[in-house]
């Protein structure tokens, strides 16, 4: 039995050892307060594991997306970021939720919806959507991690990437340097844990909103962020297409395949030229993010982060046109994933919509 299967089985045993605990269904509550960073980014510790009757400490990365209904203390321990509904069935999985911030001149609320694709593998998309207080500032943390060859790398990113960024000394003076260093350090940590995390990898698009006024977006791979500002969609990320970085890949001894009916792939395998993990192709890939910053003012309406399951079937303009029809960002995210399904997107589809209001 694999480590993940063992831990997943332990999760299910909680229903037998905790009072009223079960996989949650129903409507997601709204987050109405911010929580200190150390609590939001806390590990699932040995003492917590013992309290819940688990044999071993369980990293919260493994239970990403799970919510427990019943004892609030148990529930809090299992939520990696924010609040939300998670529903798991035999045929697939979904996750959804919403929340809002309270500080700054711009009011911010968000909603998200994740849907498993039509492929034969388990859900490999993970997300972060949350507000935290750090050194007197409110930070909105939003991310989509789209895994491949398993979900251990995106789960690791969900748990560690933002904490690594915020732990960089330069974050408050040179955020771009801090983000770049944290991306690279996180990738090295993933590679050093290959026996545990496997040979897979993940894309990432991260957004950090500082006091509702400054937006920093970084990405590797083809998960994308689009800002609607001044009535126009602004792509805040770069799709790392193997064809675009073909010369870099070839100079490192690799090649880019372009087979009929398929997308460009690094050595006929990976459809992106930058990613976390992917030990077998790492000598050809980069984990350095592209970074963009934008001021958030009265002309900024919304931000959409999504995995390529959405962008493969909808362009930037189509996405913001749908999203701006809804005042509720969760309703917008749900409509976007529904629309992608209607357009026969087969990949996992993950979407976060962040609404700004001056």
From TrEMBL:
Coiled coil: none annotated. Its EC number is 3.1.3.16. CDD domains: PP2Cc. The keyword Isomerase does not apply. Keywords: Hydrolase, Magnesium, Manganese, Metal-binding, Protein phosphatase. It comes from the Eukaryota. One of its GO terms (molecular function) is metal ion binding. The keyword Cell membrane does not apply. Belongs to the PP2C family. This is protein-serine/threonine phosphatase. It comes from Panicum miliaceum.
């Amino acid at each position: 039995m694999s480590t993940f299967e063992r831990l997943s089985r332990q999760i299910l045993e909680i229903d037998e050892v905790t009072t009223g605990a079960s996989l949650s269904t129903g409507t997601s509550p709204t987050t109405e307060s911010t929580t200190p960073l150390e609590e939001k980014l806390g590990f699932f510790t040995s003492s917590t594991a013992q309290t819940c009757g688990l044999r071993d400490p369980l990293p919260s990365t493994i239970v990403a997306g799970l919510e427990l209904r019943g004892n609030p203390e148990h529930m809090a321990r299992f939520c990696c970021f924010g609040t939300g509904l998670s529903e798991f069935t035999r045929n697939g999985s979904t996750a959804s939720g919403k929340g809002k911030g309270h500080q700054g001149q711009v009011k911010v609320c968000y909603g998200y919806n994740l849907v498993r694709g039509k492929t034969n593998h388990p859900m490999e998309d993970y997300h972060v959507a949350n507000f935290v207080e750090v050194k007197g500032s409110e930070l909105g943390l939003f991310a989509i991690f789209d895994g491949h060859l398993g979900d251990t790398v995106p789960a690791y990113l969900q748990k560690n990437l933002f904490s690594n960024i915020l732990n960089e000394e330069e974050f408050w003076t040179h955020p771009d340097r801090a983000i770049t260093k944290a991306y690279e350090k996180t990738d090295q940590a993933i590679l050093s844990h290959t026996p545990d995390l496997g040979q897979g990898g993940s894309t990432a698009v991260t957004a950090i909103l500082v006091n509702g006024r400054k937006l920093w977006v970084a990405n590797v791979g083809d998960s994308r962020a689009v800002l609607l500002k001044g009535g126009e969609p602004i792509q805040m990320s770069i799709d790392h297409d193997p064809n675009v970085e073909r010369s870099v890949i070839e100079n490192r001894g690799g090649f880019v395949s372009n087979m009929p009916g398929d997308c460009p792939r690094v050595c006929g395998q990976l459809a992106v030229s930058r990613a976390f993990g992917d030990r077998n192709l790492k000598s050809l890939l980069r984990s350095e993010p592209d970074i963009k910053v934008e001021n958030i003012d009265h002309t900024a309406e919304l931000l959409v982060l999504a995995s390529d399951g959405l962008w493969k079937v909808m362009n930037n303009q189509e996405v913001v046109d749908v999203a701006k029809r809804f005042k509720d960002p969760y309703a917008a995210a749900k409509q976007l994933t529904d629309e992608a399904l209607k357009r026969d997107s087969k990949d996992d589809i993950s979407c976060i919509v962040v609404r700004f209001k001056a």
